[in-house]
Amino acid sequence: MKIGIYDPYLDDLGGGEKYMMTIAECLSAKNGVDVFWDGAQDFKALNQRFSLDLTKVNLVPNIFSAKTPIFKKLLETRKYDAIIVLSDGSIPLSLSKKLFLHVQQPLKSFNPQTLMGKIKLSRVNAIFCNSEYTKSFNKEKFNLKSYVVYPPVSISPKKIQKENIILTVGRFRVKDVVTKTDDYKKLPVMIETFKKLVNKGLSDWKFILAVSVQEKDKNAFNDLRESAKGFPIEFLVNKSNEQLREEYSKAKIYWHASGFGEDLITHPEFAEHFGISTVEAMESGVVPVVINAGGQKEIVENGVNGFLWNTIEELESETLELTENDKLLKELSENAKKISKKFSKNKFCYEINNLILQ
């Protein structure tokens, strides 16, 4: 089959991009796969960052660009047996034999019930989401077959000695390109919480923030780095999957705070839609202490393979409990590793092949 893939945020190097390019990797084993994008450097950077094998994937001009005339777009899409699009709610015009939409977040304000929206929807074969959380906000809007295909996790942790490290992994953006909100990953919140723990007596532990930073955001990031001075806080910037693998392997506790302090009823998209980095941490035996919101609740069972928190006080107390109780830390770590296996790359590829090629 000839398959086309389009991700309008390909240069963002986020979890959605890893998801879409893993689809490309999976399908390229036995099919011709084209990725619609005009920046070869973006494609190369993504390949390196996530350690993907995209050698069989072709980079072709982005026909979904606003610069492409509609007749040319339709003519080009006719060449494909299937096209897969990461959608922000918009639906592309396509004459491919099949059209699939991948949705990464709740589309709270999306209304496809216009005449043109209905015409475009009639061309879509199915929608697949990254979590039940995402699916729950979108299935009625689209009124189409809707599936959940959980993101793949394949860190393959190193067998090295664990250290007293609390870790968080995510992108630093002054304005998040997908959610359009400031401080989506809540990095300042976590920094201030760790500083409070240190001031209250936590010793011999350090907090590591492994973040991706774009050139345009470097000044704001330097301000964030400055706020951590004087405390055992380290920043790892724009590291590859291989480099992150070592950090996951060494860490004991994982923090995640997306959605904290937000009105998630009005803006459910401000919560973490799934939590790839949480599962990557769990695969490495890192115990998640994550906010009780969004897709995190599908990953972490409170008190079994990690902790869910609602307030900063709970984040502090649950973290301290793990730093003081080695037996509990070990028990939750082993359970975290077991649960992470349900999000394997092999399972992901199997489900994607069944969905797209059936």
Question: Helix/strand/pairing class, anyone?
Answer: alpha/beta
| CATH class categorisation of the largest domain | Alpha Beta
Order of helices and strands: EHEHEHEEHEHEEHEHEHEHEEHHH
**Which shape, going by the Cα principal axes?**
elongated
Domains (count): 2
> What's the Cα radius of gyration?
21 Å
Q: Cα distance, first to last residue?
A: 11 Å
User: What's the main sheet like?
Assistant: 7 strands, parallel
Helix content: 25-40%
Q: Total helix count? A: 12
Task: Please state how the strands of the largest beta sheet are arranged side by side.
Answer: 3-2-1-4-5-6-7
The low-pLDDT segments are none
Beta-strand percent range: 15-25%
Structure description:
- The chain is of the alpha/beta class and 358 residues long.
- The chain folds into two domains: 2-149, Rossmann fold (3-Layer(aba) Sandwich); 165-342, Rossmann fold (3-Layer(aba) Sandwich).
- It has twelve helices and 13 strands.
- The chain has helices at residues 15-27, 40-50, 70-77, 115-121, 132-142, 187-199, 218-227, 241-250, 276-283, 312-324, 326-340, 345-357, and strands at 2-6, 32-36, 57-60, 82-87, 98-103, 126-129, 146-148, 165-172, 206-213, 233-237, 253-256, 287-291, 307-309.
- Strands 3-2-1-4-5-6-7 form a seven-stranded parallel beta sheet, sandwiched between helices. A six-stranded parallel beta sheet has the order 10-9-8-11-12-13, with helices on both faces.
- Helix 1 crosses helix 12 (345-357) and helix 9 (276-283) crosses helix 11.
- The mean pLDDT is 90.
